[in-house]
Amino acid sequence: MPVYRYKAKIEGKSCNLCKKGFEVLQNINDRPLENCPECGAEVIRIFSEFSIGFSKTDLDRRAREKGFHKLKKVDKGKYEKLY
Ligand SMILES: [Zn+2]
Q1: Quick check: 60 and 70 in contact, CB under 8 A?
Q2: What residue numbers bound the domain in which 50 lies?
Q3: pLDDT value of position 74
């Protein structure tokens, strides 16, 4: 399942989750997120800077170091925070 990274579109309009950015495990057929699942602010999909050449464990560690949270879709419009 691919991981997508999102960030708040407007920095002033963001919560702890979308301010720094977060990652979401989504199915390839899922529509990209338009709103933060926590605060509803508009989000944009951003380029994942380390998507190639790193193991999944490395990616998780690096994302955590940068303060990213990771979400997993559990139901329609519902996300579970993995960290
Ligand atoms: Zn938010």
Answers
A1: yes
A2: 3-81
A3: 87
Mean pLDDT of each 10-residue bin along the chain, 83 residues long? 88 92 87 94 78 69 85 88 86
CA of 77 to the centre of ligand 1 (A): 14
Contact 72, 25 (CB under 8 A): yes
Q: How many domains does the chain have?
A: 1
Q: Supply the pLDDT for residue 37.
A: 94
Pairing of strands 69-75, 78-81: antiparallel
CA of 14 to the centre of ligand 1 (A): 5
- For ligand 1, the distance from its centroid to the CA atom of residue 15, given in whole angstroms, is 4
* Cα–ligand 1 centroid distance for 24 (angstroms): 13
